[in-house]
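Data availability (excerpt). The following record was deposited with the supplementary files.
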Amino acid sequence: MSTIGQVLDLDAMRREIDELGVQVAAPDLWDDVENATKVTGRLSALQGEVDRVTALGGRIDDLEIMVELGQEAADEVTLAEAETELGKIQKVVEALEVRTLLSGEYDVRDALITLRSGAGGVDAADFTETLMRMYTRWAEQHGYPVEVFDTSYAEEAGLKSATFAVHAPYAYGTLSVEAGTHRLVRISPFDNQGRRQTSFAAVEVVPLLETTDEIDIPDEDVRVDVYRSSGPGGQSVNTTDSAVRLTHIPTGTVVSCQNEKSQLQNKEQAMRILRARLLAAAQEEADAAASDARRSQVRTVDRSERIRTYNYPENRISDHRTGYKAYNLDQVLDGDLQPVLDSCLQLDLADRLAALDQ
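Predicted structure:
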């Protein structure tokens, strides 16, 4: 609880709550609906976080009193109840410890994930499709909806790229640790000589924006191209120019969407993706100019950095940032990803505490 208090900085949160309370009390607050939505949402989130920590602190104080009374009276029943309560509190504290990492402005958002096949030919494309299945299976296990925006299929097998969203509270905060280059080592099923193959796939994770987010993109800065959808199934596939590709001319950022039935729907979704990527790019530039000790609201990574290896011959998964290793690769690829995510979040916590100590 002490480390949680350090990371959250409850005093600073209470000061911000007071400041937001003044804004909420202003009679003209709702003259600007977008700003009012942001202010009330932020106030609600902060108050909920403070209340959660305060309530847990109260349970710990009550537990201490229960133990003291049980010891003074040599009451084994009370001490047994205290032991049970201690176990419950420990689990809540552990969960809260991880949640404290997800206190950034965008951590609560849905996650927009883009996968791209890298070096390794058909094995890399097949690996990209395997990663997409891993993330969607993880989401399914937690009951999180997945919305696919775009899939570009490779000629022989697998995917050249895919863009999809995971809709869940703190999806971005949780999955942002997945951004980077993933490496696959296996005996290639596509090599008739059965040789060992190493291939790569890149994972990009950005927060999915809401309609109230202020990202202005002038029409003249965007080139719109339409084309026929590709891929398996569907009445609209390969029959109409419903797929949309947007190019942001000033930055060269390209996004596409083809999974909706109409061109208009695809354009709307593509604009949503473009806005999210431009926000992430702008935040990266801001973070580069800021102090190293400042925690990024949109986590930045070197996307060429190899963060994890999936070794089929040894059934092993190895995360190169945390040192996490497990010999259940088949289960991880089937969606049992949470222990890997937790190890990355715990490393983030340790880094933040070290920064606070400095």
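Summary of structural features: The first helix runs from residue 2 to 8.
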